[in-house]
Amino acid sequence: MEVKLADELSTKIFHHLNQIYNNQDNEKLTNKIISIFFKNHDPIYPNPNVSKWDQKDVILITYANSILEKEKVPLQSLYKFLENYIAPYINSVHILPYFPFSSDDGFAVIDFKKINDAYGAWEDIEVIANKYKLMTDLVINHTSARSRWFDQFKNCKNPGQNYYLSIKPNTDIKDVVRPRTSSLLQEVDTLEGKKYVWSTFSHDQPDLDFSNPDVLIEIIKIIRIYLDHGSKIFRLDAVAYIWKELGTNCINRPQGHEIIRLIRTLIDFFSNEIYLITETNIPNRENLSYFGNRNEAHLVYNFALPPLIIYTLLKGESNKIKQWLMAMPPAMFGTTYLNFVASHDGIGLRPVEQILSSSEIETLVEKMKKSGGKISYRSTKESQYPYELNITLFDALKFHIKDNSDGFQEKRFIAAHSIMLSLEGIPAFYINSLLASENDYHKLEHSGQNRSINRYQWDMNILIQKLSEDNHHSRSYKKLIDLIKIRKEQPAFH
Predict the structure, then answer these.
(1) pLDDT tens readout for residues 32-61
(2) Which candidate in 105, 204, 207, 237 is catalytic?
(3) Which of 6, 34, 39, 97 gives a 20 to 30 Å CA spacing to 437?
């Protein structure tokens, strides 16, 4: 390794660590990180002036098992779908967590280093990564309660016994920002007695404790594994919550931002082709902070866009979305927005809390209920508030706010994507929106989870038939592909 380059890299890492940890041997930790992350790989000088994307970049969001086929593992069926219906138009694929999991459709990860056997093998991931830019989730806030680390925590064995955050049950946590209504602390029986484990999202998802640098080291090892298997884009899931500090709201903490900067430094010195996106489903101003000073995320989700587009199209008024667009700052050079109108999760309402009034949000909530959707809530110290709308985008646009049957559902659906495609940033299409899927009540009833309503799994043969006939699925797919083709020819989006 070139001496000057090595010095610059170690200096940057050491600086990040000093901002995160003030009671550790950060020089030793720096050397350990370099030896892990750059093993058999020489670092490069980062080139901030290289554009990592242009107008031809479009992302498909999908589960590994969104497409099912007899006698094939889902990842192979997904690749077949990509080759037959996606390849000429979309160049990037976000495969949602493809690891062994216990709940939350993949986001309660049992083992970060393995592929879920039910989906396929690492070779199947690599086949996709060789043809498309692969986005992989870094679910770093928490693990599954069935993970090896958490089993070690309960049995007071290393290394996992120090990987999770537990506090006294009478600790004042009223100021902690919550994205759920479940209790923050879960009571866990361990060999040392009962412990109360911090669990931001569910009791099957105990939070990791990043104040222990060994946890950070584990995550760095995992990132390198994903790089070696072809990942080009890393989605930092729920990263706003990773640093807990009692007496604060435990969200958007400075140390959490610094951990992102550290990861950014590592990937910048690793390759000019890798980039980060932060998943921070929070009010718009806070979300934008994850760009940092061009030294954190390359991309942030435009989380306010989905609820604003739905509100605009259902009400037939554009004032709110125009005001928001005029107030949005242009992305700094080397950063951009990830634009989407639907995803595997619900349609988040927190990003528009400062844009739509409470009565406007309530109107939207009631309309989604009438369209067959479900509502998920979050707890505050005062009350519970709507957190997200659980519904497919196609069904969300079924009715005008004042008219329960106006015949414009398909046109609204296409218009929603037209607006998205006209904005600065990289557009992303959720597979069940690209295919205009409807609410999946069977999956909702079977799982008992509101988000399942928008996670339909397609049988390949049925999908092929649907796309070959004249129906709203085929019409929507063809119109959306036509819009993508138009956008890809516009250099203004570079």
Answers:
(1) 999 999 999 999 999 887 788 999 999 999
(2) 237
(3) 97
